[in-house]
Amino acid sequence: MKNVSFRNDVLPLKNVLYRLALRITLQHEDAEDIVQDTLIKIWNKRDEWQDIDSIEAYSLTICRNLALDRLKRKDRHSESIDTIQLALHDATASPYEQIDQKDRLQIVKNIVNALPEKQRSCMQLRDFEGKTYKEIANIMDISEDQVKINLFRARQTVKQRYQDLASLD
User: Fold this and answer.
1) Which residues have C-beta within 8 Å of that of residue 131, sequence separation ≥ 6?
2) How confident is the model at residue 148 (pLDDT cuts 50, 70, 90)?
3) pLDDT tens digits along 67-81
4) 101-138 burial, b for 16+ CB within 10 Å, e for fewer?
5) Where are the beta strands (DSSP E) in 27-157?
6) Nearest one of 13, 32, 9, 10 to 22, comparing CA atoms
7) How far apart are CA 164 and CA 112, in angstroms?
8) What count of other Cβ atoms lies within 10 Å of the Cβ of residue 99?
9) Structure pTM?
10) Tell me, what's the pLDDT at 79?
11) In degrees to the nearest 10, what's the CA dihedral of 3, 135, 44, 17?
């Protein structure tokens, strides 16, 4: 890619980078630090930007690697993501229905958070960020088939665990 602008091409990726880092680390403070570190690394490599095919894929790869490094250093696991809010609020829903929707959403978040990192990352990049299989393969340095397998397994696990929990009600 030629003529890459930090302001126009890199900075707009902040939210995508944050969501990926958050999905990996499960801690919003860590995700914020990782995004900042990612932006610094990208800026420090500005002389090489003309050799990069996709600044977005490059940025997401750096972000993912930094997040994984942080996880290894801290060697810990957290159970929830409190900062991601999905707009499920339905003005016509009763307060009971709204609480039920919120509870179901939290169950799904917890199930996703408990997935192995590769499955979580594939799901984040594909289902929430809309990346193609090829882009995900490049970002995660795995084959497109591995991306599809990880996505399939992640979705199956979420579906099965949700159904198992729903049957307990």
Assistant:
1) 125, 139
2) very high
3) 988 887 775 443 333
4) eeeeeeebbebbeebebbbbbbbbbbeebebebebbbb
5) none
6) 32
7) 14
8) 11
9) 0.61
10) 35
11) 110
The reported pLDDT for the residue numbered 56 is 93
At 1, the amino acid letter reads: M
CA gap 69, 124 in Å, rounded: 18
pLDDT of residue 106: 85
How deeply is 27 buried, as exposed, middle or buried, from its count of CB atoms within 10 A (0-12, 13-18, 19+)?
Answer: buried
Residue with tokens 């990352």: 121
Residue owning tokens 């729903």? 166
Map residue 94 onto helix, strand or coil.
Answer: coil
What are the tokens at 3?
A: 């003529």
The pLDDT tens digits of the residues spanning 58-112 come to 999 999 999 988 887 775 443 333 333 444 444 566 777 778 778 888 888 889 9
